[in-house]
Amino acid sequence: MVSKKQRVRTVILIIILAAAIVGGVFAISFFKGGVTFPWQLAKEVPVVEEPQDEPATEEPKLVVTEKPKPEEKVEEKVEETEPEETQPEEEVEEIKAAQTGQKLDYFGALSVEDGRLTDADGNQVQLVGVSSHGLSWFSEFITADSIKSLRDNWGINTIRLAMYTSDYNGYCVGGEDNQKALKEKIDEAVNAATDNEMYVIIDWHILNDSNPNEYKSEAIQFFGEMVRKYESNENVIYEICNEPNGDTTWQDIQDYAEEVIPVIRNVNQDAIILVGTPKWSSDLVSVEEDPLEYDNIMYTFHFYGATHKSSSRNQLTSALDEGLPVFISEYGFVSADGNGSVDKKEATKWMEVIDEYGLSTCIWNLSNKDEGSALINAASEAKTDWEYDDLSEQGQYFFDLISDGDYKIESTATKSEDEEESEEEDETENTDKSKTSDDSKETVKKSNDKKSEVKNKKH
Question: Is 91 a catalytic residue?
Answer without folding.
Answer: no
